[in-house]
Amino acid sequence: MLMLLLLARRGAGLVAPTTRRGITTARPAAAYDVIVIGGGHAGCEAATAAARAGARTALVTQNADTVGEMSCNPSIGGIGKGHLVKEVDALGGVMGRGIDWAGIHFRMLNRRKGPAVWGPRAQADRDLYKDWMQNELSDYPNLSIVEASAEDVLFDNEEVRAVQTSAGELETKAAVITTGTFLRGKIFVGSESFPAGRYVRDDPYTATTEPPSCGLAKTLEVDLALPLSRLKTGTPPRLDGRTIDWDKCVEQPSEEAQPFSYFNDQRKDRKTVKCFRTATNQKTHDIVRDYVHTLAPTTTDGVGPRYCPSLHKKVERFSERDSHVVWLEPEGLETDLVYPNGLSGAWPRDVQEKIVRSIVGLERAEIVQPGYDVEYDFVDPRSLDHGLGVRNVVGLHLAGQICGTTGYEEAAALGIVAGANAALSALDRDLPLENRRRFVVGRDQGYIGVLVDDLVTRGTMEPYRMFTSRAEYRLHLRADNADLRLTEKGAEVGLVESGRLDKCLERSKLVDDGVQHLDSLRFAPEAWGAFFLEGAEAERDAKRRPHKTASELLAMPHADFDKLKAFCAEQNVDLNVAADAEDTVAAQCKYAAYLTRQKRDMDNYRKHDATKIPADLDYSEANLPALSAEEREKLVAARPRTFAEAGAISGLTPASLVYLYQHVSSRGKQR
């Protein structure tokens, strides 16, 4: 019965994903304003953004049936990543509405911490997501889908003039390249390798692959002399859910769905599934170590992701741990395929089987498609400007993994920036340079701004993943207020339609009114003290306590909006805050004092870029506990002499730089 709650059974055989091929392609036109190359998450956002901005746009893809495909993990969102999805939606993007339609399991991550770093996450039915995206793009104004292979970008006097495809030469004023893992892609399974961008998901039995893009790599590396390097990512094996012993695993039901899109109401007919948790063990780790020689040789060029590492890397890097969590995630409502999140690794199939079957609940699990690694080219993102345009070339933009990122959400965020700027470049081509528009999100305006700025100013040596810790203004850059931060900005360049802007402005007023109302409500110390304090703390210095406003009560530790509601009901006071504004009002009150202090700290740090860092500074965890292991590792390797040099190190967050500055300053005072 448990299995029936999770996955649908269909007769004796494994139920393969069902795909409705609903995308509509078009005959290539003579000319476009913008051509987007690639139909992944970056390409979908770039194409729709360019079209919304008023550009006649074509999305060129070698296989229209894979537009909107979720190539790896069947989920969207998470810590830092969920913020990006909300921001993409605030700018009129499509990912948030897509996952709201296709979501089958929802969680809010990081709830133990404050609302600024909560991470909304949803698991998707892969086919529902892809179908929704293809239907959306098929009917999108100003957008055509062209099924062809893009082979070259052609230039005239350092300006984009056309894209050469298998269907012929397509004239355009701007192009966005979003090749994902296809740019000279190579797949690894065990010690074997072959050219490919990915396996075809809809055909797991025949192991069909999609070919890599080699012509565009030559364009970038030879014709434009851009610096290219290699990165690598991996995906775990897919399992037959009917062969898993679910009773041995720990179930995780879905929470109530919270829409990612500010323009969506909750679906009334939503179906959800349960995920399950198991874990590796010492036997698993012994197999990993014993068969390390069967992996691709370490001389391969691609650098893998630090924050979503293969099982081999986790066992190697955290040798003191005797287990690692494995999440068993259904791939959809109408399939028995299960994604074992945490078991990425490109061992030979027989070794993968040994590893899988060493895990509790998976003793008899059958592998439907083995895990694999894919290595691919990326362009050093320091070759790009803040609009993701290639420097010294008019009209050429890059987005997604070609910029050095990993993840659907990062790709979508870069796609919307690149698509918007490609459209502006095309539409303003005949204007004087000083009058041409650009769309740039600042670090203080959004995680999208943090993402772009980190890449184009610092570059990356490994697949870049977004975390809330990368943002110095993260108390302000919350998931609950992305629309208030970005929707008006998007409307200025045509990314946001009037109806969405009106809804944002209405919510902004509700938030302002809510904060003002809470500021006006004052409560005596004997009233709020008895409710918000406990034990000895409630009795201590009761007569010295001040009156507090409702907004000040929200700022107290362990206080939240529900608790404030209960208190006000006890006091017969009407809170009078609109439901659509509650989360944002609560967060603004909670963080008011911290935001003021944060701004002061950052301003103070920026004034001291030339401050010297002692050459003998101890970067150990004991001395600098607030730094991450990655940050300590990079600081030890670089040994920066000044804070300007430290700020140029990829992966060192602004918040950590402030912490380091405060440590060095206090050390100087002590001496």
List keywords for this structure.
alpha+beta; 21 helices; seven-stranded mixed beta sheet; 671 residues; disordered N terminus
Description:
This protein has 671 residues and is an alpha+beta fold. Helices cover 35% and strands 17% of the residues. It has 21 helices and 24 strands. Strands 1, 2, 6, 7, 8, 9 and 22 form a seven-stranded mixed β-sheet that branches. Strand 7 (150-155) and strand 8 form a beta hairpin. Helix 2 (41-52) runs parallel beside helix 10. It is globular and about 80 Å long. Mean pLDDT is 89; it is low at 1-21.
Short description:
By secondary structure, this protein is an alpha+beta fold. It is 35% helix and 17% strand.
DSSP summary, beta strand count: 24
Give helix % range.
25-40%
Count of runs of 4 or more consecutive helical residues: 21
Rg from Cα = 26 Å
Major sheet size, sense and barrel closure: 7 strands, mixed
Q: What structural class do you assign from the helix and strand content?
A: alpha+beta
Q: Which residues form runs of ≥5 with pLDDT under 50?
A: 1-21
Mean pLDDT: 89
Question: What's the end-to-end separation, in Å?
Answer: 69 Å
Determine the oligomeric state from the structure. single chain
Strand content: 15-25%
Shape, per Cα inertia axes: globular
